[in-house]
Amino acid sequence: QQPVQSPQAVILREGEDAVINCSSSKALYSVHWYRQKHGEAPVFLMILLKGGEQKGHEKISASFNEKKQQSSLYLTASQLSYSGTYFCGTPQGGSEKLVFGKGTKLTVNP
Amino acid sequence: DTAVSQTPKYLVTQMGNDKSIKCEQNLGHDTMYWYKQDSKKFLKIMFSYNNKELIINETVPNRFSPKSPDKAHLNLHINSLELGDSAVYFCASSRPGTVNTEAFFGQGTRLTVV
Q1: What is the pLDDT of residues A46-75, one digit of tens each?
Q2: Is the pLDDT of residue A28 over 90?
Q3: Could you tell me which residues of chain B have a Cβ less than 8 Å from any Cβ in chain A?
């Protein structure tokens, strides 16, 4: 079951904040976040393993609400380098199969 | 040193041809994957190998055949290429246990079938 991401696209000015959501109709065992810049490979940001866990990477942080079966990625004081497509991924049934959402395209303008 | 490397980076070929994409990782990981990313940027898993053994085989046409000669290599062979096969193919690797390990992606192979 593919996780659902929202919004599909976000346009920000440098310094603004954004939130990207990832939800699933099935139980989430963990949530992975990746960022893919145009023409490049996806790059790992963080994994959240337990309900309520929060993590940070630079000024990017994420939370995981196991009960609500969702995770949110918070981008604070966005920089131009944050532009890219953000994917959340969840292992199906705790297996090796990592299924990604359709991605959220983030554009940060000067 | 590149952790996960794919060759070629670009591949343009005619319909009906057979082509291969090679992938190598020097991270010592046991698990390797092939993902397909279509024009809408949807990343879909195709295959996963753990220590040379196939563990995930998604609903992919039989024309696609992965081969893992050793745990550091996972190649993808595609027979009778079709227009719909045009996409970017990413190889990735991770330690066993996707639940709590990150995946490292190669730079991708952009396949264009004409």
Answers
A1: 988 876 666 777 789 999 888 888 999 999
A2: no
A3: 31, 33, 40-45, 48, 50, 55-56, 90, 96-108
Confidence of residue A94 (pLDDT cuts 50, 70, 90): low
The answer to whether the CB of A72 falls within 8 A of the CB of A18 is no
pLDDT tens digits, one per residue of B30-43: 889 999 999 888 99
Cross-chain Cβ contact A85/B40 below 8 Å: no
Whole-angstrom Cα distance, residue B70 to residue B24? 10
Check CB contact under 8 Å for B41 and A102.
yes
Q: Are strands A31-36 and A42-48 parallel, antiparallel or unpaired?
A: antiparallel
Residues of chain B with pLDDT under 70: 1, 97-100
- Give the closest residue to B88 by CA, choosing from B22, B17, B35: B35
CB contact under 8 A, B31 and A99: no
CA distances from B99 to B8, B31, B45 (A): 30, 13, 15
Residues 6+ apart with CB under 8 A from B28: none
pLDDT band at A87 (very low <50, low <70, confident <90, very high): very high
